[in-house]
Design goal:
Length: 392
């Protein structure tokens, strides 16, 4: 059953935008003979130039947008992350910081501020984001809060070569397109998109060899007890994406934070409808077809897949833990130590942030941090408190 009822209404401009994107999807479905895979639909809905959710003018992040991320909700997140970046940059004897998918630019501005305070600024702060629209917003955010550091920031169109430094990405893996599948009677089928009764709708199609073998592998490792008709998703482009990053990083550490699970938990029998979620004005629901181009579409991250892709690309998985343990290890106590010196309002605000970021059963546990390294053997403070690599 769809949860997409009672969503806030669209303005006429938004409705017209949604119609243009839907027309683009319909055209592609027609050209493809009546059916496209879900990853292609997600690519169009989120990233089609000038039309997709991330490529066009929607507000997206923040209170007046559709969803709020940890660095948006709590600057303490970026301050702790800065402490981890400082450790790495000092160990490397300096380097660059590359942020993937920088959203509104809030994390970049807060990271730069905290690194400047610690006298540990990277040589350059590089940002690679697929959204041209968000790049402008990032520039405005950084110019508004850290104008003196703007000349250190550069926006890239592609991955750099021979990077030495740190790569950070918060909630980017979950935004990479996924294929959706169903397993019935031992056969794997793709759940894609077709037109039914004049509307975009789920429709089964044949699985490609790549999808079939990826799902069969997952089923071997985690499929014990899957009910017939088990539905979930798999991110087939993750491997090439991580491989490209591995090729770019000559020496240093990649830090990914996202909501996700080890494979055996992700594909547990009881999670029989996958993890696909859509966000529109702070409401979440499960129908990716109601607001094409106007809502975010995400799926959780299979961190075992990230680890496998990393190892297959010559990277080392140097740590995997919950967001709470990562932030505490990175140095959250340092920021909370002088709570008693703050006035009551600031004390309450900092406590709110710490609680939000570390809450068990909430953000603190659902979100995980993973470190992938290249030519870097030193310990990472963010993974010193608890390391859950054995669960992958
Ligand atoms: C959910 S938002 C997270 C934004 C920000 N990191 C935060 O935590 O607030 C996802 C971001 O990733 C970007 N993105 C999506 N796919 C990407 C890719 N393949 N490479 C770089 N950026 C990407 C989007 O444009 C957007 O800025």
């Amino acid at each position: 059953m769809s949860l997409a009822t009672g969503l806030p209404p669209l303005t006429p401009d938004e409705a017209a935008h949604g119609d243009r994107l839907e027309a683009r999807v319909r055209e592609e479905i027609a050209v493809a003979g009546g059916w496209i895979g879900f990853a292609r639909y997600m690519q169009l809905a989120l990233y089609e130039p000038g039309l997709g959710y991330y490529s066009a003018g929607a507000r997206k992040l923040g209170p007046s947008g559709d969803f709020v991320t940890a660095p948006e909700a709590a600057p303490l997140f970026s301050r702790c992350l800065a402490a981890q970046c400082e450790e790495i940059l000092r160990e490397l004897g300096g380097g660059d910081l590359l942020e993937l998918g920088a959203g509104s630019g809030v994390m970049a501005a807060d990271l730069l501020a905290e690194l400047a305070r610690r006298d540990a600024l990277p040589r350059r702060y590089l940002i690679l984001d697929v959204s041209a629209d968000l790049r402008e917003r990032q520039r405005a955010t950084i110019a508004g809060t850290m104008p003196e550091l703007l000349d250190r920031v550069a926006w890239l169109d592609r991955l750099p070569e021979n990077l030495v430094g740190v790569v950070v990405a918060n909630e980017v893996l979950d935004a990479l397109p996924v294929e959706r599948f169903v397993v019935r009677g031992g056969t794997v089928a793709a759940l894609g998109v077709a037109i039914r009764d004049g509307r975009l709708a789920w429709s089964e199609g044949p699985a490609t060899d790549r999808l079939d073998s990826a799902v069969r592998r997952i089923a071997r490792e985690a499929g014990d007890g899957w009910p017939d008709g088990y539905v979930s998703e798999v991110r087939l482009e993750l491997g090439p994406w991580i491989a490209a990053l591995a090729a770019a990083l000559a020496r240093g550490v990649m830090l990914f934070v996202d909501y996700g699970l080890p494979r055996r938990e992700y594909y547990a029998p009881e999670r029989s409808d996958g993890t696909l979620l859509c966000h529109f004005r702070h409401r979440w629901h499960d129908d990716p077809f109601v607001r094409p181009g106007l809502q975010d579409i995400t799926a959780w991250v299979d961190f075992t897949a990230v680890a496998e892709a990393a190892e297959g690309s010559g990277l080392e998985v140097a740590g995997y833990t919950t967001q709470a343990h990562f932030l505490i290890g990175a140095g959250m106590d340092e920021f909370l130590a002088d709570l008693s010196t703050l006035d009551v309002v600031r004390r309450a605000e900092l406590s709110r942030q710490a609680m939000l970021l570390t809450l068990p059963g909430g953000m603190g546990e659902r979100f995980k941090a993973m470190a992938l390294t290249s030519g870097y053997d030193s310990p990472l403070r963010g993974f010193a408190v608890r390391d859950f690599r054995h669960t992958l």
